[in-house]
From TrEMBL, chain A:
Keyword Cell division attached: yes
GO cellular component, one term: nucleoplasm
Keywords from the UniProt entry: Cell cycle, Cell division, Mitosis, Nucleus
Species of origin: Chloropsis hardwickii
Protein's UniProt keywords contain Cell division: yes
Gene3D superfamilies to which the protein is assigned, alphabetical: HORMA domain
This protein's name: Mitotic spindle assembly checkpoint protein MAD2A
UniProtKB/TrEMBL annotation, chain B:
Annotated family: Belongs to the WD repeat CDC20/Fizzy family.
UniProt protein name: CDC20 protein
Pfam families in alphabetical order: WD40_CDC20-Fz (PF24807)
Organism: Chloropsis hardwickii
Region (Disordered): 15-84
Any one GO biological process: positive regulation of anaphase-promoting complex-dependent catabolic process
Start-end of Low complexity biased regions: 35-46, 56-70
Repeat in keyword set: yes
Residue ranges of every copy of the CDC20/Fizzy WD40 domain listed in the record: 179-445
Start-end of each WD repeat: 232-266, 308-339
MF (Gene Ontology): anaphase-promoting complex binding; ubiquitin ligase activator activity
């Protein structure tokens, strides 16, 4: 918390921006897992963040798994070599992709060169992040029910020549065959801009 | 006619009864083989060059038998199930061409490739071919066996099992009276009905307000908006029951005298529709779509005496406490704010409490009549919980999952209970015992 206060006065640096965005992903993914019922709601606990009450998992294995992703994303965001993070929700029995949450990242590469921090208040960024998270929560009003038990997958689109780190492997994009897409709000730290869309399988039965 | 017989004989000799041997397996067969050993944790094998991925799902799959089965018209011979009597109507050449075409896709001209690439960059924002897709392995185990995604249970069940305990008093399961309300606006965020202390029910139907006299059953049309596009967004009776405050979609707050059926005041101070109103003796508070709450002193000409800015989205719930000390507001931004009746030091109104725990819009806001400082709030579709708070300490005294969007809460003055009204998905009324939070009754209608 002290670090963040300091940052508020200094403006946004590349490292700060990477941390903010990685943090957003961590809370965003937790929210998606809770709202879509991928894991039982009893395994989530409430925390205060961005002036909201958010739900994060208490399952140690899952928390550890998500931490790995967050740490890795921080690094990649700092180097500006990641373009997209995707949360794929698929049915366990049929392996069919039912929902696909896509977070597009636009990185301003010039931030790597100039060392001065950018002008944007923490509060403004927090407000924007808050709107996106609220929208994710509200999607339950229109997303089709996930009938069967589902599992999730995390995909990251990076630069082609990146060395694949340990624990990661190459994969396909796992698109949805017949999908409906909804564009949610975006937020920007002036260095990184994140656009969110959710694609879901169109109901075959009217 | 003889020549047709000859032709038929000729075709009979030439026809093939067995499926084509050594044909390349159909695409779906190949896929089934690949994913045969169950959902592999290693991940799906990388697809063909990424710029084709948009169209890969739409690629047609032709099987040898498919083109034949559609045109089959003669009855099958007994004892064979792959009998295709008349192959002359099938387009063997076409089928063959399509089958073999699938095997080498890279037949496009260079310019077409360029175009596809340009489209891919356009759509994706970056060159997808240049991107690598990585997947984190070592996925944590999924939810335990027997865990059914509770949302399905939530939104599809019709009846929740009611309380098995026998109620000590009789609660009718059918309504006493059903009133017709044509044209009533189906908008969660509006507050269109209010019951006065004089036993009048005010109902806003689109652009008019009707009063129903409970004693006589008489219906009076109190007012109708002049402009056809304007609708009423909220109604609220003053405590004495002789004046009615009406909020409109054109951001006006009107004050009407019931005895004379005349409009007394038209107060404009908001910029967006006024979805909710609440009285505190001579102060009328109004909440608007902008998230602002205005206090109006209805006795003076300069009615707009204060502005409370605590919400960033539409204010849909607004209630003064019964002792007039606090004003509770709920908004579409999932916040509940509790405001004091007097300004703070700096001349600004700041909330004494802000509750962020609701995950949905808070429209249901109600103060407990027999316990000081106790507030009940209910969340919308994404939340579905009812929460009881102590506004002095800020603690959440209890929470209960109501399984449906909570539209309103009313405390009883005769029993230690409160009733909640629900919308999606069960559209019911639930009577709860306080403070045990057990369901006393559930009313369907």
């Amino acid at each position: 918390a002290q670090q963040q206060l300091g940052r508020e006065h200094q403006g946004i640096t590349l490292r700060g921006s990477a941390e903010l965005v990685a943090e957003f992903f961590s809370y965003g993914i937790n929210s998606i897992l809770y709202q879509r019922g991928i894991y039982p709601p009893e395994t989530f606990t409430r925390v205060q963040k961005y002036g909201l009450t958010l739900l994060v998992t208490t399952d140690p294995e899952l928390a550890n798994y998500l931490n790995n992703v967050t740490e890795q994303m921080k690094e990649w965001l700092y180097k500006c070599i990641v373009q997209r993070l995707v949360v794929v929700i698929s049915s366990i029995e049929s392996s069919e992709v039912l929902e696909r949450w896509q977070f597009d990242i636009e990185c301003d590469k010039t931030a790597k060169d100039d060392n001065g921090p950018r002008e944007k208040s923490q509060k403004a960024i927090q407000d924007e992040i808050r709107s996106v998270i609220r929208q994710i929560t509200a999607t339950v009003t229109f997303l089709p029910l996930l009938e069967s038990a589902c599992a999730f997958d995390l995909l990251v689109y990076t630069d082609k020549d990146l060395a694949v780190p340990e624990k990661w492997e190459e994969s396909g994009p796992q698109f949805i065959a017949n999908s409906e897409e909804v564009r949610l709000r975006s937020f920007t730290t002036t260095i990184h801009k994140v656009n969110t869309t959710v694609a879901y399988k169109k109901d075959s039965v009217p | 006619m003889a020549q047709f017989l000859f032709e038929a004989d000729l075709h009979g000799l030439l026809k093939l009864d067995t499926p084509i041997p050594n044909a390349p397996p159909a695409r779906w067969q190949r896929k089934a083989k690949e994913s045969g050993p169950g959902p592999s944790p290693v991940g799906v094998s990388p697809m063909k060059p990424a710029n084709r991925s948009h169209s890969s799902s739409k690629t047609p799959s032709k099987t040898p038998g498919k083109s034949g089965s559609k045109i089959q018209s003669t009855p099958t011979k007994a004892g064979g199930d792959r009998y295709i009597p008349n192959r002359s109507t099938m387009q063997m050449e076409m089928a063959n061409f399509l089958l073999t075409k699938e095997n080498d896709p890279a037949e496009e001209s260079p310019t077409k490739k360029e175009q596809q690439k340009a489209w891919a960059v356009n759509l994706n924002g970056f060159d997808v071919e240049e991107a690598k897709i990585l997947r984190l392995s070592g996925k944590p185990q999924n939810a335990p066996e027997g865990y059914q995604n509770n949302l399905k249970v939530l939104y599809s069940q019709k009846m929740t099992p009611g309380s098995s305990r026998k109620n000590s008093r009789y609660i009718p399961s059918m309504p006493d009276r059903i009133l017709d309300a044509p044209e009533i606006r189906n908008d969660y965020y509006l507050n269109l009905i209010d019951w006065s202390s004089q036993n009048f029910l005010a109902v806003a139907l689109d652009n008019s307000v009707y009063l129903w006299n409970h004693a006589s059953g008489e219906i009076i049309q109190l007012l109708q908006m002049e402009h056809p596009d304007v609708y009423i967004s909220s109604v609220s009776w003053i405590k004495e029951g002789n004046y009615l405050a009406v909020g409109t979609s054109s951001a006006e707050v009107q004050l009407w005298d019931i005895q004379q059926q005349k409009r007394l005041r038209n107060m404009t101070s908001h910029c967006a529709r006024v979805g909710t109103l609440s009285w505190n003796s001579y102060i009328l508070s109004s909440g608007a779509r902008t998230g602002h709450i205005h206090h109006h002193d209805v006795r003076v000409a300069e009615h707009h005496v204060a502005t409370l800015a605590g919400h960033t989205q539409e204010v849909c719930g607004l209630k003064w406490s019964l002792d007039g000390r606090y004003l509770a507001s709920g908004g579409n931004d999932n916040l509940v704010n509790v405001w004091p009746c007097t300004q703070g030091g700096g001349g600004d109104f700041a909330p004494v409490q802000t509750f962020t725990q609701h995950q949905g819009a808070v429209k249901a806001v109600a103060w407990c009549p027999w316990q000081m400082n106790v507030l009940a709030t209910g969340g919308g579709t994404s939340d579905r919980h009812i929460r009881i708070w102590n506004v002095c300490s800020g603690a959440c005294l209890s929470t209960v999952d109501a399984h449906s969007q909570v539209c309103s809460i009313l405390w009883s003055t005769n029993y230690k209970e409160f009733i909640s009204g629900h919308g999606f998905a069960q559209n019911q009324l639930v009577l709860w015992k306080y403070p045990t939070m057990t369901k006393v009754a559930e009313l369907q209608g």
